[in-house]
Each structure stands twice: as C-alpha cells, then as structure tokens.
C-alpha cells in the first residue's frame, strides 16, 4: 500500500537493524510506551533483529487496558438501566468488569451498541429522544478532542439525553510515575506517535531532563520503530538526554493546537485511577462544570461504586513494564482472549493479546 509499504521494506529493515547492532556497546533497556508499537514489535518479530544488549520493555500505552475496573462496572450499571443505551468502541465489549462484561450484558438484553466515533453515539441520541444515550469515552489525548467535540455539539443542540462516561487519561504523568518507581529500570523511551501528533512533545523534553534519559518520538511501522530504537541507542551511547522526533511526517513539537484547545475547553486535569497501577495524580481528564449536565456519573449518581482487581492477574506489572505477559501463571491457561482476566488480554493494543496472538507464530 502506497506510503505504508516503504516503511515495511525488508531491505531497509535489515539495514537499520544492522546499524543498531553496530551502535550498541552495552546493555540498554528501552520502553515503548504505546500498545500499538508493542503489537507491531510482536507482529513483525522485531526483537529477533535486535542485538542481545537491547531489552524492550512494554509500557502502559493501551487506553482500554488502563481503564479502571470501577469504570467498567459503572458502564455495566448504566447498561442495566431501563431506557438507557450504552454506546462503546468495540474494544471495550469484552473487557472484564468485576463479574461481567458489556458483551455479556448485551446478550442478556441490555441495549449496548458498538460505535466507531462519539458522533455515532450523538446521532443515536438524536434519533432516540425518548432514550438516554451514554457514550463510554475512553482513551489518551488522541481520542479526547473528538469526544470533546461531541459534547460541544450536544450543548449547541441543547440535547438532554446524551451523556459521557469519561475515563480519559494522560500519558506523561503515568510515565513519570513509572520512572519514579524503585522497581523500574528504564534507560530510554519510545514516545507514542499518535499522542504526540495531538500534544506535541514538550512534555517528553521535561521527562528527558528530569530523569536523564533519551526519548525518541516514533511511529508504528517496522522501520519507524527500528529508527526510534537506533536513535535512542545512539543518544544513550553518546550520553545525550534529549528528545528526537523520528515521526516528523505526523508529529511536530507544538502538536495540534486546535485539538488541544477543544480538549481543554471541555475537560480539565484530574487525578485518575489506572487499572492495575493505582491512582496517578494529574493523569486524567474530567468533564468541566460548564458541561456537567452531560456527565453520566453526576446524572446517574455512580460515585459509590468501588471495585477490586482479581489477585491472580498481573496486568498492573505488565503495564508498568516490570513483568512480561508470559510471566503470568494464568497466561494462555485461565486467561485467554475468549475468557480474559484482565484488559491487556482482550484489547487490540494490549501486550498480553500481542503475546498470545503473535508469540506462537514466531
């Protein structure tokens, strides 16, 4: 496919991998933040091209995976309310709550619908004025602007039956929390290209300076990822703690100011629970008071729901980069995509799902 195939060219892939092998002189651990990058690494078996000195650590960049358990349980409560339509992205349908998931709720009679954008959910609300429509709004800075636009449009139309169950999270505070942990040993970062397309990469300049480590902003194709690894290794070997943009076809330093303005017009920074990780200060986006009429948690009074993670699931350690999916005693046995114990096994960006689907192929 034009504009994609060239980033998968086997000859270029081998040349970049050779440069990495020629550049490295010692052991380095590099975390790829985004789950999309993790899946590409597993799909194309990129680790086999790297020298043994390079260890890749999988980060928390899967928005479905880090959605707190209590948010899933709140979505299930909303889906059970008569006269309510719960709209969600397909990735959320099989993510386990405490005792069920949205797909099972749908099978049991709840009106749960898969949509491809928040505007689809908005259209559902317009077409069903007698029903209350709740869109389960998850994601990082990539999806927040579109969800904000849906609320702005609902306000302009004076809709009284459209709501968001907001579970948006911000990447840099989570990375700061991981880098601050005593059990984490990370030498460099591959920053998430899609997030940085919206936000720019000033926050990662701050992280590079604060934790004395290099950061390469990169994309999701094999050559993107290997180029990011090569750039990070070259900075590590030369002692440079800087940020290099290896995804300039999509990312610039300032990001998308229009998207950011829209996002922060509707949302404000708040503390947020991350599934398997815990509370991270300043890592979430909450609906501002001027749009509180569209806040599902306030309208339906859901604040008294508290949930507990299953003890056997090590998703938190996987998301923090301190364990691999294959370290879990339940992996591939009692935890599979058909019967997941944790979100990383079912999400299209989850590290556990990537290991399950691609590890056997290699």
Could you explain the architecture of this structure?
This protein has 362 residues and is of the alpha/beta class. It has three domains: 5-61 and 172-245, HypD, alpha/beta domain 1 (Rossmann fold, 3-Layer(aba) Sandwich), CATH 3.40.50.11750; 69-170 and 255-299, 3-Layer(aba) Sandwich (Rossmann fold); 315-358, no CATH class. The protein is built from 14 helices and eleven strands. It has a six-stranded mixed β-sheet, sandwiched between helices. A five-stranded parallel β-sheet has the order 2-1-7-8-9. Helix 10 (222-238) links the parallel strand 8 and strand 9 (243-245). Helix 6 (144-156) packs across helix 11 (257-266). The longest helix is centred in the middle third of the chain and has 17 residues, at 222-238. The radius of gyration is 21 Å and the shape is globular.
Keywords:
Rossmann fold; 6-stranded mixed sheet; 38% helix; 362 residues; alpha/beta; 11 strands
**CATH evolutionary superfamily of the largest domain:** HypD, alpha/beta domain 2
Tell me how many strands there are.
Answer: 11
Count of discrete structural domains: 3
Q: Which CATH class of the largest domain applies here?
A: Alpha Beta
């Amino acid at each position: 496919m034009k504009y994609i195939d060239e980033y998968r060219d086997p000859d270029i892939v081998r040349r970049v991998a050779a440069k990495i092998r020629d550049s490295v002189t010692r052991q380095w651990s590099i975390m790829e933040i985004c789950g999309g990058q993790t899946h590409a690494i597993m799909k194309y078996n990129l680790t086999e091209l790297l020298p043994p000195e390079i260890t890749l650590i999988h980060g928390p960049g899967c928005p479905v995976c880090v959605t707190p358990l209590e948010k899933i349980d709140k979505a299930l409560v909303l889906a059970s309310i008569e006269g309510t339509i719960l709209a969600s992205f397909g990735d959320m349908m099989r993510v386990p709550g405490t005792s069920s998931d949205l797909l099972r709720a749908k099978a049991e009679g709840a009106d749960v619908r898969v949509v491809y954008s928040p505007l689809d959910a908005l259209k559902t609300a317009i077409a069903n004025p007698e029903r209350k429509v709740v869109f389960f709004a998850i994601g990082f800075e990539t999806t927040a602007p579109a969800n904000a636009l849906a609320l702005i449009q609902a306000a302009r139309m004076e809709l009284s039956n459209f709501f968001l169950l907001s579970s948006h999270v911000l990447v840099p505070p989570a990375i700061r929390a991981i880098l601050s942990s005593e059990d984490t040993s990370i030498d460099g970062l591959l920053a998430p290209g899609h997030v940085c397309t919206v936000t720019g990469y000033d926050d990662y300049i701050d992280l590079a300076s604060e934790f004395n480590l290099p950061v390469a902003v990169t994309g999701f194709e094999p050559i993107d990822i290997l180029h990011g690894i090569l750039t990070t290794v070259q900075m590590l070997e030369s002692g440079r703690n800087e940020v290099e943009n290896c995804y300039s076809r999509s990312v610039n330093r300032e990001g998308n100011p229009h998207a950011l303005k829209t996002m922060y017009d509707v949302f404000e920074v708040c503390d947020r629970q991350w599934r398997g990780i815990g509370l991270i200060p300043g890592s979430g986006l909450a609906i501002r008071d001027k749009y509180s009429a569209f806040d599902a948690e306030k309208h339906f009074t859901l604040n008294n729901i508290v949930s507990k993670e299953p003890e056997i699931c090590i998703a938190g350690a996987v998301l923090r980069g301190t364990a691999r999916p294959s370290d879990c005693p339940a992996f591939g046995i009692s935890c599979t995509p058909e019967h997941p114990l944790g979100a990383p096994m079912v999400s299209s960006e989850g590290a556990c799902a990537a290991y399950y689907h691609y590890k056997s192929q290699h």
